[in-house]
Amino acid sequence: MRFINCKIAAILLLHCAFSGEIGHVSAQTDARLQGQVVDENEEPISGATVYLLQTKQTEKTDDRGQFYFNADRGSHDLQISKIGYAKQQYKGTFGERKCLVFKLLRDSVALHEVIITATRTEKKLEDIPLPMTVITKEEFQQKGMVRLNEVLAEQPGVVLVENHGTGLQLQGFDAKYTLILIDGEPVIGRSSGTLELSRITMANVERVEILKGPSSSLYGSEAMAGVVNIITKKAVLGRQLGAAVRYGTHNALDIGVDGSIVGRKSGVYAAFNRFSNSGYGYADEAVGKTVAPFYGYTGHVNVDYHAIPKLDIRLGLKYNDEYAHDNYKTNTAVAQEMVSSKFLRRDLAFTPRVEYRFSDRHKSFLRINQSLYKTDTRIHVVEDGKLYNHDFFDQMFSRIELQHDFKVNDKVYLTGGAGVTDEWLKANRYDDKKEFKSGFAYLQADVEISERLNVIAGGRFDIHNVYDSQFSPKIAAQYKLLPWLRLNSSVGSAYKAPDFRELYLNWTNPTQGYSVFGAEDAAYKLNRLIEAGEIAEVLFDPARIKALHAERSWNYQGGVRLSPWKPMTISANVFYNEVSNLIETFVLATKTNGKSVYTYSNQEHVVIKGIESTISYKWRDLHLQVAGQYLRTANTTVQDAITAGKGYYTRDAETGTSRLVRPDEYGGLFNRSQYTGNMSMTYNCPKPGLVFTLRWAYRGRFGVRDIDGNGILNLDEEYAPGYSLFNASIVKSFYKDRITCTLSAENLGDVRRTGVATMPGRLFFAGISYRIIN
Amino acid sequence: MIKNHIFQKVSLFAISAGLLLTSCSKDNKELDEVANKQEVVAVKDLNGLDKGGVYFSLEKNRETEENSTDWDIKITGTTIGFGNGAVGQLVEGVLDSYHTAPTEGYSNSGITGNNTYYVNTLYNAPQHAILMKPGVLILVKTSKGNYVKLEMLSYYKGSPNVKTPDFADIPTRGEKWPKQHYTFNYVLQSNGTNKF
């Protein structure tokens, strides 16, 4: 692989050829010095700051990357800078009608990463007053990772959890509270709140940004725990073509091709990926696998067009299809039948985007997102081919959004935006087409109060046709106490809107017989069941079912980032979240078959708090990173009742009689580990061109069941034991780094957990990638 | 009489708290003395499996026939029914520290359904088990009008430890610990008052 931005270098080019062609030089007759700033592709850079050291004058480059000074001709020292580029000092000799060209190179991503997720504008990672993790292409290629779940599994503060798919638990929040974006656009299609992470390939990805903490002030609903933003590759000038293949345990095969053709005005980037697996199970059953055999495709095309220097147009198209096929026996009390299931998941997103730069200070983005998501499961009886069950789900998401960035001066940067969203779904578990319409507006100010203090404050207002309007404010600050020590803190509020399921679900479990209704229709549905004589007892007056409110959180964070000496950085962050109005199911009525009728209501109040710390150390070719998180969670309603000595009971181990649960026995929320940790070691051996990595991920014990029937976590037996996962890889590059071979292993210790799809035992992979055209 | 550690702990706590709060300790002691007077009746492995149900007289502490006029409760599967004029209801509490029975709210309709006095674990481990919910008491007004507080303890013969992997193994669970063998404790206040 060739990593263009790996080395920071600045080259001063003394070209005069351009000068004669510059059209409006004559308009600047009184300007005696002129020059141009370009990037590594000779593209002009606008908005770069040019500082003349001797005369202490500052100018900005215009749309053509040109600058003019009223200063004496001759030799000058210049300093040129722009966010995202390595700041450089130059010496230039300016003559009459002579235009000097200066080349400014992009920052190495690894050193001064420019991050887009935290503020919706480009900002250096170290300047962001919020906890963030960035994983670059280099990192996940070195570790042999090809899917998003593999990348996220090893990040500090992240635990992969299983609930209708593999999702991420971020800082103790369930998967449904993290917004997943691709190039800033939300990915739709969740099952019970989980967005299946393995849907997303890393083949076309430049980097993954993880922003921790509430981000509804910019992104609206769902961004309560944070945001994962997947930034796809940006094509560079010229032609490129590459191919990669990885094969491993369970016949896991990942094949990818990507390439680009980019000219001065336009460019095309395209990527294609196929991913398949022969499936696997935990028990050695003859039929039926925990993960059914599947194959999937991802296609991605970006077309860029720089119509005029001020205007960029990008059309993005991404599609993802997955097919799974399985045979198994049904498990109902009535009969055991052999059935065959066919599953399809389709995900299609069209994301056109226009960027217009009015001037150095004003620019606007118009973004459109038209996404479609569908699943379709058909189960047939093998014997007679009869349709046993058909489940379908169609979702459409449309959004148009305008963002405007205004640089008031060098110290104040405003970002604002507004948009409308239309979302609908049709599914067999819903009566008819259900639709959400919403609108939103947000504003953020990034203010450099002094050289040391930077404050970012903002808020977002969301208006919705079904539930209450939401306002989500946030303020964050960074204080540079010492050159190597920065203090960060933030206070923010976020929300999670009630989803289609919580509002409109109409589902009766065909094998279990219980029913779940969304809160909006529950009263009506219950009355229909009463009329049909299916209800034995009504336990809650349906007239008292309340309209659902959004779940709301307040988050407080404080952190420190220090680099006491160059090879080492340490960061630590304390977080405290209070979530109210948590939406939970409750029993509405009992059916004549003895099963319950459930609906949703706002009930619980939860506290999630913890501390997370990362230490990173680079010594020559060795990079070591250690991270840990300590987490405490509690349902405050439960905790208060236990403290007050009522409501929660358990059985005495010896006598078998009931007693109250003691406050110290309460273990908080299920599926949370108090302790988690990660370690990663990368050794880059330059001579034979080898890279070794060894990683360790630890998860402490976590609550998985309720044995004593009190609904809470309080017994040691209710926990699953903790585990450690070891992963490793070796990468060898040949032929000027154009061919890369990778051997990797996941879960070397062969840890297995029944029912945890993320842990199918030890996995080995071998991969090769080839840059066919560089 | 069942030896009860919790009871001792509660008493100890009451006494030690009483050192600080004299007015409090007096009430607790009085209540404790009352509680001490009644016997906890322990019923073990009442077989409701063979005949598909079992009839029981709380007054006489013995199993009866269906046509007897003595029985207060009948247990069939997971349903607790009342007969011969006995009525009942569910309340929250612990046997030892429950002192005053409500005088109203009783009914002769049976107590049934998941999450009443028991929990059907369904797909939670141990899967498909009937576990008695802690902190739930069944209050019965017997055919003679006496109050009874009753705690169900187990649905399986031998009251197995439900936390073990052995119990979680469904195929062998039924052989080792046959279902519908009821174990429960109860206290009868024979003087007709609702104070235990």
TrEMBL record, chain A:
Outline the extent of the TonB-dependent receptor-like beta-barrel domain.
Answer: 269-748
InterPro entries noted in UniProt: Beta-barrel_TonB, Beta-barrel_TonB_sf, CarboxyPept-like_regulatory, Plug_dom, Plug_dom_sf, TonB-dep_rcpt-like
Keywords noted in UniProt:
Cell outer membrane, Membrane, Receptor, Signal, TonB box, Transmembrane, Transmembrane beta strand, Transport
Which SUPFAM superfamilies does the UniProt record give? Answer: Carboxypeptidase regulatory domain-like, Porins
Give all residue intervals belonging to the TonB-dependent receptor plug domain: 125-227
Q: Where in the cell is it found?
A: Cell outer membrane
Topology class, membrane: Multi-pass membrane protein
Q: What is the protein name given in its UniProt record?
A: TonB-dependent receptor domain-containing protein
Lineage, highest ranks first? Bacteria, Pseudomonadati, Bacteroidota, Sphingobacteriia, Sphingobacteriales
UniProtKB/TrEMBL annotation, chain B:
Q: What is this protein called?
A: HmuY family protein
Lineage, highest ranks first: Bacteria, Pseudomonadati, Bacteroidota, Sphingobacteriia, Sphingobacteriales
InterPro entries, per this entry?
A: HmuY
